């Protein structure tokens, strides 16, 4: 290969790499933390007590639509410290097929509507924790029914107690419908 051919090839490679880099950087505007297409993205974490049991959770949700929709997804990890010394951990995946934003339990504190899940399924892992996770979710205000080991069905409006307005919410030290939160942090973004 001649010296001139090597320079041309080197220039072509540099220009190609720069073009690829510009394309990748320029196209990231449509990529979001959880994927493309979602209107709402939420991250949250909390600790507290309910019915004498200590609990904690963290997770994220996405919703497609402005104030209602038929697509949503949540991944939530929960742990429960039961009064009898038993500890339960639930990994839950919410496949949401109907949601709305409406006045909920946090509205008085945030001035914003809450996300309500109206239909869908929740996959619980491990499956042997399904009944306990269903009881915990029901006590927290979810309208769920165990339909199979590892599967819950959402039967009607269930207040997620997550505000449907962009912002950071620090709601620690409050009690909502019998649930005492030691710590509650919520981050909401909207595209």
UniProtKB/TrEMBL annotation:
Keyword annotations of the record: Membrane, Transmembrane, Transmembrane helix
Protein name: Uncharacterized protein
Organism encoding this protein: Candidatus Marsarchaeota G1 archaeon OSP_D
Superkingdom field: Archaea
Transmembrane domains' residue ranges: 12-34, 40-60
